Amino acid sequence: MAKRDYYEALGVQKNASEAEIKKAFRRMAQKHHPDRNPDNKESEDKFKEAKEAYEVLTDARKRAAYDQFGHAGVDPSMGGGGGHGAAGGASFSDIFGDVFGDIFGGGRGGGGGQRVYRGSDLRYNLDLSLEDAVAGTTVKIRVPTLVACGTCNGSGAKAGSKPETCTTCGGHGQVRMQQGFFSVQQACPRCHGTGSIISDPCGTCQGQGRVRENKTLSVKVPAGVDTGDRIRLAGEGEAGENGGPAGDLYVQVRVKDHAIFKRDDNNLFCEVPISIVTAALGGELEVPTLDGKVVLKIPAESQTGKLFRLRGKGVKPVRGGPIGDLMCRIMVETPVNLSSKQKELLQEFQKTMDQGGSTHNPQAHSWLDGVKKFFDGMKL
Predict the structure, then answer these.
(1) Distance CA 324, CA 311 (A)
(2) Cβ(206)–Cβ(226) below 8 Å
(3) Which member of 23, 277, 334, 366 has the lowest number of beta carbons within 10 Å of its beta carbon?
């Protein structure tokens, strides 16, 4: 019986890339592998056909011969000179390992030696005053971390010796285990994934290559940072294993509550208490800003809640843009601890206010009119 065309057997075009061929074979193998189709002769034949096609089309030399001479170019029994057919060569587990090698960290073979690992990133929580956050500052911090051992320069081996390549995994740090249909890659049980064995460990780090240390760092905090902002210090995290690159340190900013100001994005807010006399007659008072005092003019007849905007007295954004404003909200303060004389004066004052009707208290009278209409409506 004549053999089917290899490209047709895998369902790919003749100009298919190696990746497309591997993908097609993986699909065929999953569908027709004998472990999934016991006692199914048709599936077994299709699997063998796909396996044979895969072996030829993923070998550049064999594929070239097949493209030029057809099956005769790769089958010795047909007079060709190129390699072997489905009966010989690698086992299915080998082929399957090649197909899924990228999933499990690479294919077979390859060099030895230690596997290097990047160090872990670290986080440091930095509390700042509002003044420092707005103006910017430089602070010193102490960070507990793992650094490369100075005695063995991070190798983990005693002076005069060096780590040896693990013979179990060949330095890969991983071993492949066949579990039925799938090939599973696991950390090497002998070297625990490092790819090397230290027979004579360093006395300072006990073979770990890293030691714990409190590191003092200078952190430049840019002006305008706010709670939630992060400052990245590249390479200041934990040292990598086996000479791998260090991780990064992320300084997490938290701005402490302020006694006077509240921040909202690039604006600052504050409440300014004033007396009823200043509210009624107007006046001037000093209010604080983050860069000094300013005089705020209060117009006559000001009410509680009135906002005054001081432009450019807020926060300069850390990522650029216009400086925010300071918003001052006045709060008319009711006097307390009055003397008898003060109470008499207020009562006399109230009598004069009542004589004016709604002239002096328009909001109060408007509210009372609304209440009256509300109750009249309930009676209907």
Answers:
(1) 7
(2) no
(3) 334
The C-alpha atoms of residue 91 and residue 97 are separated, in whole angstroms, by 10
DSSP secondary structure string, 303-350?
-TT-EEEETT-S---TTS-----EEEEEEEEPP-S--HHHHHHHHHHH
Q: Has residue 111 got a pLDDT over 50?
A: no
What phi and psi, each to the nearest 5 degrees, are found at residue 277? -70, -45
Instruction: Tell me the per-residue pLDDT of 166-189, one tens digit each, with 9 for 90 and over.
Output: 888 888 888 877 665 666 778 888
pLDDT 10s digits, 129-162: 999 999 999 999 999 999 989 888 888 888 888 8
Q: Which domains does the chain have, with CATH numbers?
A: 6-99 (1.10.287.110), 122-254 (2.10.230.10), 262-333 (2.60.260.20), 340-379 (no CATH)
User: Which long-range contacts link 98-102 to residues 24+ away (Cβ below 8 Å)?
Assistant: 98/22, 98/58, 99/22, 99/25, 99/26, 99/29, 100/26, 100/183
Give the C-alpha distances (Å, rounded to integers) separating 262 from 29, 69, 83, 130. 65, 82, 79, 9
Q: How far is CA 44 from CA 48, 88, 106, 119, 365, in A?
A: 6, 16, 28, 48, 96
Strands 196-197 and 249-255: unpaired
Using the 8-state DSSP alphabet, how is residue 188 labeled? -
Strands 137-148 and 210-221, by their bridges, are: antiparallel
Torsion angle in degrees (nearest 10) through CA of 276, 281, 286, 290: 70
